[in-house]
Structures are given as structure tokens and as C-alpha cells.
């Protein structure tokens, strides 16, 4: 583990103080590097695992247009995972090591992807709420201090807005439909609202990583600040299409000009991130199985590259 010289520490801290991006070849504290590998690799795992719940509905999409849009979104998520794995690799960890950590349960992925997609409305709720939450988090992360991560966020945010819009369109169409369709949309809202709020992480006073994250300007806004921003904008979107927010305690606070919400079920959150969510086992088993089934493709590609055949 390289210990920085005094001059290197000053160089790193001065760049952070000037809000300049830290680049892969810059000297950086080992703690900074390890913190970033943890966060970026878990972000990448989330993008790839997140393809599973949506993939369940490709063959059952209600129209060819809906199928095309869903396929395009899932393909985007795969690309997001690629950008992020590549950003993490600039910190000196290999793809194989990151996947081994995931498969061994040593690395997390976002809690939200451990919930089942029971109806087509869930695909709308994921696009609108999950990608909507991801946009709030990732727009803030565009200002993260690590250059490759920040640039990946700029690219990803451009595609997320399409994801959020297509999800909201699905929910709006259902809410303009039959009574059964409206009930399906509200049921999805009821199941996805709280887990989407918990995507932003534990409350600030229970976020052990935030202190370092702020010191190193990896995180620029707190979990609660981003959660509140998402709530404030999403409540109004729900009202426009007639969806009810499943929180009887939620009310607009005239003094703060924000929506106050009722308590979230953090016990459920910690159970889910410990691996005891509704779909954790299924998600991991599938990821491991597909990784093993695809080993021959990786070997063939590596052999072809070694023999000088550049992929077309
Ligand atoms: N799911 C799983 N684990 C979570 C979590 C969540 N929603 N929120 C927090 N955690 C974990 C943290 O990873 C940490 O555990 P660790 O030390 O083992 O890694 C622990 O809970 C404590 O949380 P902290 O708030 O102290 O940790 P962070 O400072 O890392 O903040 C975070 C958590 C806000 C999720 C931050 O890591 C982050 O911004 N990550 C990047 C964004 C991201 O990963 N998004 C995932 C969704 S990707 C997505 O939505 C794809 C979209 O296209 C659909």
C-alpha cells in the first residue's frame, strides 16, 4: 500500500481544495482509492443487476413499441455498468476481482433491485421512480472529485432522462386507462415508493461513509438532501397523473417549502442490504449462472485478441 510523501499529500489536498478532478495517475491516499473502488464497483453492479427485474418483462411488453423502448433502456443500463466498471479499473482493480467480490457477497448492489416486478406497471414505476431517483443522485455525482467517475456520470445522466420519461409515460397511460389499469399503476406506486426513497442510503446521521465521502468531495450532497429533492419533485408528478403517494403522514411544510414524509422502514432496508430481501438470492444466482455460462465467450474473445484478431 503506497504511503504518500508530504509533497504528494499536499498536491492531492490542493487539487481537492481547488475542486479539480483527481485523475488515475495522480497521487491519492489509499483510503480515497479504496472508498472509490467500493462505491464505483457497487454502482456498476447495481446497473447490471438492475437489468434483471426489467428483463423479466421484455417478452411480456404490451406492444412492439413498449418492447423496443424497454430493450433500449436495458441495453443502456448494461452500458452504464461498462462505463462504471471501466472507471473502477482505473483505480487498479480488475473486473474479475470486482465480480468475485459481488459473487462472494463482499460487495453490494442497490437495495432497490431486490424487489420483484409483478406487473407491467412495475416497469413504469422503475423507470419513473428508480431512474428518477438515480438521476437526482447521479446529477450530484457529476461533481464528484474523481475524474473518470465524474465523466461517467455526465454520460449516464444524459441517458437516464429518457429512462425516467418512458417510465412516467407508462404510468400516465395506465392512469388514463381502465379502472383495472389505474389500480395496477397505484399498486406499483404503493410497492415502489418507499424502496425508491431508501435507494438514497440511510439517514445522514446513520451514514458511516459520508464523513470521508464529503472530506474527499466524492459525495457532494447528503443522502437526506438528495432524498428530499427527489420527493419534492416526484410528489407533483404523481399528482399530475392522479397517483396517490402511499404515505398518510406526508404533508407540505409551508415553513420549509418541502414535503415532510412519514417514517421509512429502515429495518427492512438493512435486511435487504444484508441479503435478506425478496429477490436477493434469485438475483445473485442468476448473475453467477449467466457469468459461468458466458465464460466461453470471454475465453474466445481473449484468444482472438491474443491472436491479433480485432473484434469487428
Ligand atoms: N443499496 C445498497 N447498499 C446501500 C444503499 C442502497 N440503496 N445505500 C447505502 N448502502 C450501503 C453503502 O454501500 C454502505 O455499505 P458499504 O460500506 O458496505 O459499502 C452502507 O450502506 C452505509 O451507507 P452510506 O450512506 O454510509 O454509504 P455511501 O456514502 O456510499 O452512500 C450511496 C450510499 C448514496 C448509495 C452512495 O454509495 C452512492 O451515491 N452510490 C452511487 C449511486 C448508486 O450506487 N446508485 C445505485 C443505483 S444505480 C441505478 O439506479 C441504475 C439506474 O439506471 C436504474
Largest sheet: 2 strands, antiparallel
Say how many strands there are. 2
Helix content: 55-70%
Judged by helices, strands and strand pairing, the structural class is: mainly alpha
* Biggest sheet, spatial arrangement of strands: 1-2
Q: What's the Cα radius of gyration?
A: 21 Å
Unreliable stretches covering 5 or more consecutive residues: none
Q: Are any ligands bound, and if so which? A: 3-hydroxybutanoyl-coenzyme A
Mean pLDDT: 96
Q: With helices defined by DSSP (H or I, 4 residues minimum), what is the helix count?
A: 13
As a percent range, the share of strand residues is: under 5%
SSE topology string: HHHHHHHHHHEEHHH
In one word, what is the shape?
A: globular
Oligomer: single chain
Distance between the amino and carboxyl termini: 39 Å
Describe the structure.
By secondary structure, the chain is mostly helical. The protein has 13 helices and two strands; from the N terminus they run H-H-H-H-H-H-H-H-H-H-E-E-H-H-H. It has helices at 6-17, 30-49, 51-55, 64-89, 95-103, 120-141, 147-175, 179-198, 210-215, 223-241, 266-276, 280-293, 295-306; strands at residues 251-253, 258-260. The protein has a two-stranded antiparallel ribbon. Strand 1 (251-253) and strand 2 form a beta hairpin. The chain is globular, with a radius of gyration of 21 Å. The mean pLDDT is 96. It binds 3-hydroxybutanoyl-coenzyme A. 3-hydroxybutanoyl-coenzyme A binds next to helix 2, helix 4, helix 6 and helix 9.
Task: Please outline what is shown here.
The protein is mostly helical and 312 residues long.
Key phrases:
globular, 66% helix, two-stranded antiparallel ribbon, single chain, 2 strands, binds 3-hydroxybutanoyl-coenzyme A, mainly alpha
Amino acid at each position: 500500500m503506497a504511503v504518500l510523501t508530504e509533497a504528494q499529500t499536499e498536491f492531492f489536498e490542493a487539487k481537492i481544495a481547488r475542486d479539480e478532478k483527481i485523475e488515475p495517475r495522480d497521487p491519492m491516499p489509499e483510503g480515497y482509492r479504496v472508498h472509490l473502488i467500493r462505491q464505483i464497483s457497487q454502482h456498476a453492479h447495481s446497473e447490471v443487476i438492475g437489468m434483471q427485474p426489467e428483463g423479466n418483462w421484455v417478452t411480456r411488453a404490451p406492444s412492439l413499441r413498449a418492447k423496443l423502448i424497454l430493450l433500449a433502456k436495458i441495453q443502456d443500463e448494461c452500458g452504464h455498468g461498462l462505463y462504471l466498471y471501466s472507471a473502477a479499473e482505473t483505480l487498479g482493480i480488475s473486473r474479475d476481482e470486482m465480480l468475485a467480490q459481488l459473487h462472494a457477497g463482499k460487495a453490494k448492489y442497490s437495495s432497490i433491485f431486490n424487489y420483484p416486478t409483478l406487473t407491467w406497471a412495475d416497469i413504469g414505476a422503475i423507470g419513473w421512480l428508480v431512474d428518477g431517483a438515480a438521476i437526482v443522485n447521479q446529477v450530484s455525482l457529476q461533481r464528484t472529485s474523481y475524474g473518470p467517475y465524474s465523466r461517467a456520470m455526465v454520460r449516464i445522466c444524459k441517458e437516464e432522462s429518457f429512462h425516467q420519461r418512458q417510465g412516467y409515460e407508462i404510468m400516465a397511460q395506465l392512469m388514463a386507462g381502465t379502472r383495472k389499469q389505474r389500480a395496477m399503476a397505484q399498486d406499483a406506486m404503493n410497492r415502489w415508493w418507499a424502496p425508491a426513497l431508501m435507494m438514497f442510503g440511510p439517514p445522514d446521521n446513520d451514514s458511516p461513509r459520508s464523513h470521508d465521502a464529503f472530506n474527499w468531495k466524492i459525495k457532494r450532497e447528503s443522502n437526506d438532501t438528495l432524498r428530499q429533492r427527489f420527493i419534492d419533485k416526484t410528489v407533483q408528478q404523481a399528482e399530475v397523473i392522479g397517483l396517490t403517494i402511499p404515505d398518510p403522514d406526508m404533508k407540505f411544510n409551508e415553513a420549509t417549502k418541502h414535503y415532510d414524509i412519514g417514517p421509512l422502514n429502515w429495518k427492512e432496508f438493512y435486511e435487504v442490504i444484508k441479503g435478506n430481501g425478496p429477490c436477493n438470492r434469485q438475483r445473485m444466482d442468476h448473475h453467477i449462472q449467466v457469468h459461468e455460462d458466458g465464460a466461453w465467450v470471454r475465453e474466445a474473445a481473449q484468444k482472438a485478441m491474443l491472436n491479433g484478431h480485432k473484434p469487428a
